[in-house]
Amino acid sequence: MTLRILLADDHAMFRSGLKAVLGTQDDLCCVAEVADGQAAVDETGRLAPDVAILDVRMPRLDGLRAAERILGRPGNTTKIIVLTTYDDDSYVYRALHMGASGFLLKSAPPEETIAAIRIAARGDAIIDPSVTRRLISRFAGSIAPPASSTALERLTAREHEVLMLVAQAHSNTEIAQRLGIGDETVKTHVSRILAKLGLRDRTQAVMYAASHRLVAPLPPPPPGTERLGRRMGRGGRQN
């Protein structure tokens, strides 16, 4: 199956470079490249690509507002990856709140961007590992847990265990291996956790666990390993 990709960035050289990278992959095809957010909205509506990669700062309409319009369109099936040189936490919060499937820095190696496209296309989510680490540290260190823990008390012991592993950005397969259970069982647990806590996806589950101080801030990664990202699949839809 060939994944159809739309590129939106106001820097022609960056678009050309990324398009060339996509062209090296048999399963990826760039169906459109545009230079502003409004054109991204228009072309996404016309072509319905599998994934749209949007720069944050673009003329006419910035990438986050373009993402909001695309994701809010009835019947939309296009997944959104926000790509930027600015690792500002406020961008991440807005993008994830709107339902973006990924947030990557432009400094990410080409192989990570390619992997992110495939992950997003199948309904999973990915955040640049340096951003994930900073977000968890920020939430865990600055937000006090609410007085009531009623929602958490509804989780079974196993669901709580799975939530802890999700919060550490482990994939379903990794969780299954750690707990000695099947992937489908993990999917069931994750779906029930999201339903009981009223969360949209696993990315929100990470933020929830950090804000409730269920996980400690992550230690700095060993030198040379920061680029190794974690996959975070949306509940019940990870392949």
- Which percent band covers the strand fraction? 5-15%
CA-to-CA gap between the ends? 15 Å
- Rounded to an integer in angstroms, the radius of gyration calculated over CA atoms is 18 Å
Assembly category: single chain
Number of helices: 11
Helix proportion:
40-55%
Label the structural class: alpha/beta
Total count of strands? 7
Strand order of the largest sheet: 2-1-3-4-5-6-7
Overall mean pLDDT stands at 79
Principal-axis shape: elongated
N-to-C order of helices and strands: EHEHEHEHEHEHHHHHHE
Largest sheet: 7 strands, mixed
List the helices and strands and how they pair.
Layout: E1 3-8, H1 12-22, E2 28-34, H2 37-47, E3 51-55, H3 63-71, E4 79-84, H4 89-98, E5 102-105, H5 110-121, E6 124-127, H6 129-142, H7 150-153, H8 157-167, H9 172-179, H10 183-197, H11 202-211, E7 232-233
Parallel strand pairs: 1-2, 1-3, 3-4, 4-5, 5-6
Antiparallel strand pairs: 6-7
Helix pairs in contact: 2-3, 3-4, 6-11, 8-10, 8-11, 9-10
How do you describe this structure in short?
The protein has eleven helices and seven strands. With 239 residues, the chain is of the alpha/beta class. Helix 9 packs across helix 10.
Explain how this protein is built:
This protein has eleven helices and seven strands. It is an alpha/beta fold and 239 residues long. A seven-stranded mixed β-sheet has the order 2-1-3-4-5-6-7, with helices on both faces. Strand 1, helix 1 (12-22) and strand 2 (28-34) form a beta-alpha-beta unit. The protein is elongated.
Key terms:
239 residues; 48% helix; alpha/beta; 7 strands; disordered C terminus; seven-stranded mixed sheet
